Amino acid sequence: MRNPKKGKAKAKSKAKVLQPEEAGSSQPPPLAAPSARTVWRPDTDAVGEGEELQHDPSAYDCLHSFSLEWPCLSLDVLRDDLGQPRTHFPHTIYAVTGSQAAVAKSNVITLFKLADIAGKKPSQDDSSSSDDDMSDEEEGQPRLSVRQVAHHGAINRIRSMPQQPSIVASWSEAGHVQVWDFVAQLQQLRPDEPGTAKPGRLAPLQLQPHSTEGYALDWSHMAQGHLASGDCRGNLHIWRPSPAGKWQVSPSYIGHQSSVEDIQWSPTEATVFASCSADQHICIWDTREQTKPMLRVQAHDSDVNVIGWNPLTSYMLASGAEDGGLRVWDLRELSSGEHVANFTYHRRPVTSLEWSPFENSVIAACSADNQLSVWDLALERDPEEEAAMAMAPETDAPSDLPPQLLFVHGGQENLKELHWHPQIPGMLTSTAGDGFNVFKPANV
């Protein structure tokens, strides 16, 4: 769903052009009775008997889905050597994910390559057609290549080191964090041959027990090899690489009273990171001080599930809560406890959020309501455009959509995590209980 109720939509939307047979016809097509397409929202609208939900193909530049043997509730998109920014289809992406198998010993870490991700076909047989001159029909299906490594226990969260993508950390439900080197598996994916190999076995570079399982995990973008992990008992540790090829793990940082749900390193300061917790607080830390955080603020009235640090505007932090609330904070004013934006669109827990790596005002979030929302904080309400959209018969948009809501993606069950591609503007990958979606909204 593209939100028509926004002030700068023209700069970000793409018009549908006439097909050649429509443009060249000497007689107008027969008139059909206009039928309004209703936007359906989970937890608000019911699906009647015989009704079927359909996505609008014109809302996407591409949309592909696939699944693996077991659900994977965490993934990370890997940086590659194919260049950036990449704007022309077809695209290729690499990612790593971890399974949630029925039996602990059946779990695997999966590295995959999705090649030949096609966009919409040009609407005319003209190689000079612009990106706007696209039909809703996509070209062939992409090709999936997979390599797997055995992993004991389900994977709660998985993250790739940004400076060395083959180095991956995994959080296991068995209560430990492991660091892996998947350079051989990634090399096996590079040949242009789709397929799946049987899961192999690989010894981790390091296995570090926690007192219980956890979910918080993040690599630093500023200090290569530095890792932060947090568990469900409020313990928070910093991993520092040592000359011996291992990591030295700090004692727990003291500040949270409940489960550490998420961790984010500062995009500009090597010793600074943020954490959020089921104690409803966000903490800002300096790695040189373990006994207390630099700042601590109650961010929501429920568990704070996820946080995201803006990579392009380093004083902006976003948070998502158990009650569905999505807030944006100015870290320069964090001690006041006042947020700069508060969105209550989602009705169920926010499970993931991430700022766009290319536009500093754009953020994506997903929720247990099975919606993935894209927001642009720079957008403002435009009464004239709203009035024009209200007259259009093809769309019946809800009147209460926030103007900053740029796009809504649905269709996945038990939606858990999303990531922007760091080298392909506007490309998103999401994972859920029923598989993966790779897509690019047409207006992002």
From TrEMBL:
Specify the Histone-binding protein RBBP4-like N-terminal domain's residue ranges.
51-114
Q: Which SMART domains match?
A: WD40
Per UniProt, the ranges with Basic residues bias are: 1-15
Positions of the WD repeats? 253-295, 297-332, 343-377
Protein keywords: Nucleus, Repeat, WD repeat
Where does it sit, as one GO cellular component term? nucleolus
Name where it's found: Nucleus
One Pfam family, please name it: WD40
- Could you tell me the superkingdom of the organism this chain comes from? Eukaryota
Q: Which residues form a coiled coil?
A: none
- Give the UniProt record's GO annotations in the biological process aspect: ribosome biogenesis
Q: Where is this region: Disordered?
A: 1-37, 119-147
Q: Where is the composition biased (Acidic residues)?
A: 128-139
Enumerate the InterPro entries for this protein: Glutamate-rich_WD_repeat, Histone-bd_RBBP4-like_N, WD40/YVTN_repeat-like_dom_sf, WD40_PAC1, WD40_repeat_CS, WD40_repeat_dom_sf, WD40_rpt
For this chain, the family text in UniProt reads: Belongs to the WD repeat RBAP46/RBAP48/MSI1 family.
Q: What is this protein called?
A: Glutamate-rich WD repeat-containing protein 1
The source organism is: Apatococcus lobatus
